[in-house]
Amino acid sequence: MTTMAPAYIAKFGGVLGVAAAFVGTTSQSGRAVDTCGYSHASCYFLFGNVAGTVSSSITITVEESADGSTGWTAITGATSGTLATTDASAYDDGVVCIVINLLSGSRLRYLRVKATPAGSADLGQCAAFIALSEGGEAIPTSTTSGARFQRVVVV
């Protein structure tokens, strides 16, 4: 008799396209992702080549909306906080992952990732996406808390 592990269904979406450069203070937001039928969202923000002399910062947040087009508000705790980019080793080719339990509290149906830079220097190329999963487990992410990976969990 063969025992099979439970099947988990995953959905990817909400891409914040690769930005040619994050410069200044103009925020960029990804597309809305419908979370209906899923229990967890893993929101990934990927950094490109960050110059070590850059005097800028960036804040990654996850926002929610009831209809996917209006009324976007930041989810409490679903933020990277301000990431200073003066130390390239911390974020160069790195990843920020924010994991959200969609069954907790009164989550709204749609999510998106928002990136807000601050400063006048070029932060390099960046991209983001949201991975949804069901079955009570988030899509696996590294448990290492190294310089190139930051994970924030919102329950």
Any key phrases for this structure?
single chain; 155 residues; mainly beta; Jelly Rolls; 1 helix; 3% helix; disordered N terminus
Topology:
Layout: E1 10-19, E2 28-29, E3 33-34, E4 40-47, E5 57-65, E6 73-84, H1 88-91, E7 95-101, E8 110-118, E9 126-133, E10 149-154
Parallel strand pairs: 7-10
Antiparallel strand pairs: 1-9, 2-8, 3-8, 4-7, 4-9, 5-6, 5-8
Description:
The chain has 155 residues and is mainly beta. The protein has a single domain, classed as Jelly Rolls (Sandwich). Helix content is 3%, strand content 47%. It is built from 1 helix and 10 strands; from the N terminus they run ββββββαββββ. The strands form 2 sheets. A 5-stranded mixed β-sheet has the order 1-9-4-7-10, with no helix packed on it. Strands 2, 3, 5, 6 and 8 form a 5-stranded antiparallel β-sheet that branches. A hairpin with a 7-residue loop joins β5 and β6. The longest helix has 4 residues. The chain is elongated, with a radius of gyration of 16 Å. The N terminus is likely disordered.
